[in-house]
Design a protein that fits this description.
Radius of gyration of chain B: 17 Å
Number of domains of chain A: 3
Strand content of chain B: over 45%
Structural class of chain A: alpha/beta
Number of helices of chain B: 0
Number of strands of chain B: 12
Strand order of the largest sheet of chain A: 10-13-12-11-14-15
Number of domains of chain B: 1
CATH class of chain B: Mainly Beta
Strand content of chain A: 15-25%
Helix content of chain A: 25-40%
CATH topology of chain B: Immunoglobulin-like
Shape of chain B: elongated
Order of helices and strands of chain B: EEEEEEEEEEEE
Number of strands of chain A: 15
CATH superfamily of chain B: Thiol:disulfide interchange protein DsbD, N-terminal domain
Order of helices and strands of chain A: EEEEEHEHEHEEHHEHEHEHEHEEHH
Oligomer: heterodimer
Distance between the termini of chain A: 38 Å
Helix content of chain B: under 10%
Number of helices of chain A: 11
Shape of chain A: elongated
CATH superfamily of the largest domain in chain A: Glutaredoxin
Structural class of chain B: mainly beta
Radius of gyration of chain A: 24 Å
Distance between the termini of chain B: 56 Å
Largest sheet of chain A: 6 strands, mixed
CATH architecture of the largest domain in chain A: 3-Layer(aba) Sandwich
Largest sheet of chain B: 4 strands, antiparallel
Chain lengths: 401, 143
Amino acid sequence: MLRSLKIPVFGILAAGLMAAGGLMAVSVAWAQVATVPAPLAIGAAAPNFNLPGVDGKNHQLSDYASAKVLAVVFECDHCPESELYEARIEKLYQDYKDKGAALVAINPDSPKSVRRAEMSYSDVGESMDDMKARAAMSHLQYPYLDDGATQSASLQYGPEAMPEIFIFDQSRKLRYEGRIDDNLNPALVKSHDARNAIDALLAGQPVAVAQTVASGCAPDWFSSGAAAVKAETAAIDAAPVTLTLATKAVLGKLRPNPTGKVLLINFWATWCGPCVAEFPDLQDTYQMFRNRGLAMVTVSENDPAAKGAVLQFLQKEHASTPNMVFALEDVYAMQDAFDPDMGSAVPYTVVLSPDGDVLYQEQGDVTILALRRAILANLPDSKAYPGIQAYWAANSNSNSN
Amino acid sequence: MLLLGTAAGQRPAPVAHLLAPSTVEAPAHGAAAAVFTVTIDSGFHIQSDHPKLSYLIPTAIAITPAGGVAAVKENWPPTVDRKFSFAPNSLAVFEGTVKVPVTLRTGRPGTQVLHGTFRYQACNDRVCRAPETVPFTFQVHVR
């Protein structure tokens, strides 16, 4: 069954770089009407799926035929609610796998339909490699399947929010659909809805509460998400690209971090292969987190006479960050003006706290997930997602990628 | 984390070194080769004299003409094709020790001191040093 839903379409009303953070003003127009699936009805048969998992194997419904109960969870990488529920989903899987209840998770999202701004609580996007990175970081043992290629399985189940769980009895009729429990904070949970449903079905009892409302990110269906991604890319591409001279005085003021925000600074040069290669990932990182208060500055160590070539490169990369180029040819004097301890080579990337403390630094190409995890661990916690900073702080030293 | 460089505030030690010939013997109104030796520290490379990517800085030896003696050609040896994690295709680089004969044209007899510069830009597989321009001098004895 399909139904209509209004979804936000992003368009630029006014674009301009703000001096401190380079934030671009965007507006949201609730205009486009898209078609999204309705959730599977209670009593309906489990739709088949045949999807690749992070374990390298294909999984289909019949693989779980021996289980008395099958739970199908819809979740994704970038959604903070999904992140905060990962451990609970893993515990559900572990607690019931030897009791006759199987659990499988399906990710309906795709890089084609998730905007960078939506990834403001995530180190990764929604590709299979991203899913593998998340499963490794969070030590997820349950099957985590990628439906991002076609969304064909997800469209049949019709999840409205992630995480959302569909629990089937032995005849694979849907007996429960909705939330996993009633609170994002595990310490405040009063109603363990999914566990109650599984326990009832394993005991041969009817499920007392068959439906609840799941809370979380809506799947980014192709019908709406692809256009939103396109609009976001167009807005980023249209943002002005600027380049100013970095004098010794400017560099000296940059090091203590005058922005009042978490500040990412990337020293690079057009003649530096590793710098050029990682530049797009760093710009994507800025686009992911800038609305959560990340500031970013790029500093080119090119000769000031090469300002034209530097600007040309920045324009090609749509670098809407504040960008600087060394004002003097003496690279080493300029590096010293920023920080005598920064080393002599590029790329050099540093993340500073609002107080100027070094949160992360790397001389050489960054490990992008390590960089993003360090940023996420230091961005402010969210009232909407309490515990999300702690989640990332716990994972900021993970080397899984 | 890989930190390259020296103590704070100091210029880092170079990773490529040019040895110019002390004296070149050459016939008057003729040609001779001045052979330069470039040694690159282990783990580093410098770019080709004709790099595959336009943004890379070519290695070059430039000599200012003096007293009728002028450099007319740098004869760089073949480069090494090396694949690095940051580039999808291999790059043409110099590694180790490289001999570079530079063809000189001469005029009338006499001894000339020539000045020149060696320009290079060094990287390893993760970082790059700033381009360096190193001056040198050598003597040409035209007979």
